[in-house]
Amino acid sequence: MKIGIAADHGGFILKQRVAESLRGWEFGVVDFGAHELNAGDDYPDFVIPLAKAVAAVEVERGIAICGSGVGASIVANKIPGVRAALIHDGFSARQGVEDDDMNVICLGGKVIDSELALELIKTFLEARFSGAERHRRRLEKVAALESHHVGQ
User: Which 8-state DSSP code applies to residue 109?
Assistant: First the structure.
């Protein structure tokens, strides 16, 4: 599985640790930056290319990290086809994929430590969309909403 990862300065240290672990777990990793710690950088500059790659299925899943995870989640969800969520617990990491086909996990580099982040990411990556009719129906409504707004 090829995984995309992106972070601004608030998530830079955590991103470095996560990328190293992903490689150790034998995942392909595409790093969308930041590639150096720069306190003046902006999360959209890294999360938007990641989200576009997820939407285009250039990577199978994405990991977006900023200081709180909130900004990364907001910007990732602006890209049609991306279903991103801010995750801080294992239940949501699994259920977000199983029920909502979440394809980008957002984390707060200043909120959780690397041990918890890796546990959540592992849960996210191991989970699979259930494909249940009720979940497909709900995702069709989300896709319809995206289509409606894209044309305006």
Answer: T
Homologous superfamily (CATH) of 2-150 is: Sugar-phosphate isomerase, RpiB/LacA/LacB (3.40.1400.10)
Cα–Cα distance for residue pair 43/10, rounded to 1 Å: 9
pLDDT single digits (tens) 65-87: 999 999 999 999 999 999 999 99
23, 29 contact by CB (below 8 A): yes
Beta strands 61-66 and 84-86, pairing class: unpaired
Six token digits for residue 42: 């902006």
Structural domain boundaries in the chain = 2-150
Give bridge partners of residue 28 from the DSSP assignment.
Answer: 2
106 is catalytic: no
**Separation CA 53–CA 3 (nearest Å):** 10
CA trace torsion 152, 45, 66, 28 (10° rounding) = 100
**pLDDT (tens digit per residue) in 138-152:** 999 999 998 876 544
- Annotated catalytic residue, options 7, 66, 86, 87: 66
